[in-house]
Design a protein that fits this description.
Layout lengths: L8 H5 L5 H4 L3 E4 L7 H7 L6 H13 L5 E4 L4 E3 L1 H9 L4 E7 L10 H7 L8 H10 L4 H16 L22 H13 L8 H8 L25 H17 L23 H11 L15 E6 L5 H9 L5 E3 L6 H14 L4 E6 L4 H17 L4 E7 L2 H7 L15 H8 L12 H14 L3 H29 L2
Parallel strand pairs: 2-4, 5-6, 5-7, 7-8
Antiparallel strand pairs: 1-4, 2-3
Helix pairs in contact: 4-5, 10-11, 13-18
Length: about 475
Amino acid sequence: MGCTGSASRRERAYPPTCRRERYAVDWVRIGTVTPSPENIDIYGEVADDEQMDALCDSIRKRGLEEPILVSRDGFILSGHRRHYACQLLGWTHVPVRIRKNISRKGNTEYHRELIEYNPQRIKRAGSLLKEALLQDNDVADTYAAIEERRDASMHVDADFMDVAGIKGTTPISERRREFLAAVQKVIDDLQDFHPLSIRQIHYRLLNDPPLKQTPQRSKYDLEHYRYRNDKSSYDSSVDLLTSARYSGQVSMTCIDDATRPQRSFNGWDSVSQFVHSEVDDFLIGYHRDRQQDQPRHIEVFAEKNTLYRIVERACSRYYVPFSIGRGFCSIPVWRDIEKRFQQSGRKRMTLIIVSDYDPEGLELADDAIRSLRDKHDVPVDGHRIAVTREQIDELQLAEDFNPAKETSSRYDSFVERTGDTKTWEAESLPPGYLVEQIQAAIEANMDMELYGRVCDQEEDDCAELCRIREEIASQLEF
């Protein structure tokens, strides 16, 4: 007698069976029921643990309330733990329901069959991960998309340039060896702040100026060739560093140009490489909000990209946000600072500012406060910590070889404010010193006792995450 009524998705996918036959229960010898080997792949070995003890107690008291579901060829679809418990209890026969439309032998979808018949069981992390990997994984569609993209990228329709000539590198002669050694020493001394800008190297060279070259015969004395705080010497350092990097005497990675950002897009060499990368990063990188419950919202603002590494080093310990302006900023910078302030829930904000000691640098600091206070309604207190007149005098900083320009619209106000036309760049400050100045300003606006408690809690949290990671790893090892 055929079955009637509307067919379900599964009934459309497989030959129909009668409703009565579908739910019929048979008693069979326990030895004729075979656990599916694929079940171990997905859910692991059936464990002799506390949960198994509880299941045995339940079966001993109430019997097996749910029959074991098996395929046409006698492999368990659902009920591996119940089958194992009955074996422990010494049962010789077990109740089974047979799915005559499903067979393990020759069934390429058998893994999915097991998952679909075990939707409500309590599963370990590894089992859940494997289910997710096996379900809804349309390999054909994914591969087709990759192939389509690859084929599109192979097509090239362009007129390539015909470039003549050779771009060479000026070798570093023996006469510039002292100059090279001085540059290499500065680069080594500032290793913690790599990559550097050539501007930073220039100012460090002024501490102990080398000879730019040692002439064999010259009408000038040696001091004529001494490195100076001028454009000619700066250009000489640019030329030397170009040759030194291409000749391998200075690392290519120790100097960067932060004014020219780059981005690349990388793929994976293999699935294995991707999996290992994901696992290595799993539950790694946690941190608490170290500004949590602080009385003030604190941010740092620096004038230019060459200060990025220094400011990042100073702020990272405290998780204080910072912005790099590249001169006078447009609305998005102030908008984002305002947004972070509003999200913090604090009532006041401190903006710590690092800028050059020149007409633009001093005015830029004032403009930052005006923009936040008057345009974005942020109750902000400004603290310009560098470059200051006190730092110039204390450290005997080398001035910029470009004094304030009379053509600048801010020239008159700068001279009136400072009494001079001399200027100093932020790069003239030793990087370590500037980091200390920024951190001192941050701490002056923080409750350090509260900060210490948050750091202690973060350490405890990380230890807990390590335990969770180990637990998950242990559950994946079948």
